[in-house]
Specification:
single chain, 7 helices, disordered N terminus, alpha+beta, two-stranded antiparallel ribbon
């Protein structure tokens, strides 16, 4: 099957999945790593087999969202938070629905080390006692995210702030 056919198949699955709802946090445990593997169609094949395709899609989304201000709980161009940005990009570009919060998103996929990062991997940061931040890895230690101070931007993992807050990385 060609890459074009795989992309069309995944997008079709995403459209069908787009009608489903995301469980409330009280039922979050039902979507574990195990049920994710067995219950959801993932973009994993594309994310691993064609990094340039993924990178190009992510940069295209960056151009669309660039400069959008941060708003906790926001889900559109008037204001967006980090996990909503990640969720929207994965749905629009890869047809995959992620949970709404950064902590819930961190439960998906396979944990990987920083030196294994590929375009489309999620990077997580612990920014406070009970607060987390998520972004999408692009390439060359850069990641796309909704910064609370600067809105939607691209930052470097080696930035002093982000390096000190880094928690983990996950491949969906």
């Amino acid at each position: 099957m060609s890459l074009k056919h795989i992309v069309i198949l995944l997008l079709g699955i995403g459209v069908m999945a787009g009608c489903s709802s995301v469980p409330k946090d009280s039922t979050r445990k039902k979507i574990s790593h195990h049920s994710h593997k067995s219950g959801f169609a993932t973009p994993q094949g594309i994310l691993e087999n064609d990094p340039s395709f993924v990178r190009n899609r992510l940069y295209r989304q960056y151009q669309e969202w660039r400069g959008t201000r941060y708003r906790l709980g926001g889900t559109d161009h008037t204001g967006i938070d980090c996990s909503a940005l990640v969720r929207i990009i994965f749905k629009e570009e890869f047809g995959f629905i992620l949970p709404r919060t950064a902590l819930s998103q961190a439960e998906f996929g396979e944990k990987i080390s920083r030196d294994e990062l590929m375009p489309g991997d999620l990077v997580f940061f612990k920014t406070g006692n009970r607060s987390w931040h998520v972004g999408i890895y692009l390439d060359s230690k850069k990641f796309l995210h909704a910064s609370s101070s600067q809105g939607v931007i691209i930052s470097n993992l080696d930035n002093t702030y982000w390096k000190s807050k880094y928690w983990k990385s996950v491949r969906i």
